[in-house]
Design a protein that fits this description.
The chain has about 110 residues and is mainly β. The chain contains no helices and 12 strands. The mean pLDDT is about 95.
């Protein structure tokens, strides 16, 4: 199983197919992913533990366990965990390409491009 550690937490790839990719993502308390978008995929994020503060094209909303955010291809998005409890969500990607190089970062706390 593919696993990667990032400055904000870590993720595990649960499934990687030609039509989709599924990840389990853990965001540490006070962690925040980059504000980003994708050219070749859409995503759905379902919260399974904790609370995620999600920004979609500038609109910010808190998502609780069982809530799902739908992120169409090209929509700017970010998830953060400003709370004390770890945040875990399942990400399902749909599209034509799922490589990490399809991340277009607009803003990043860790100076990644």
């Amino acid at each position: 199983m593919e696993h990667d550690i990032r400055p904000w937490g870590q993720y595990w790839v649960l499934e990687d197919a030609a039509t989709h990719k599924v990840k389990r993502i853990l965001v540490d308390p006070n962690g925040r992913l980059s504000y980003q978008y994708h050219h070749r995929r859409s995503e759905a994020w379902t919260i399974v533990s904790g609370v995620g503060r999600i920004t979609l094209d500038g609109v910010i909303k808190d998502y609780k366990v069982g809530d799902t955010a739908i992120i169409p291809q090209g929509v700017k998005h970010r998830i953060e965990n400003p709370f004390a409890e770890p945040l875990v969500f399942i990400e399902v990607q749909h599209g034509t390409y799922f490589g990490e190089d399809d991340i277009v970062r607009i803003e990043d706390d860790y100076q990644r491009v």
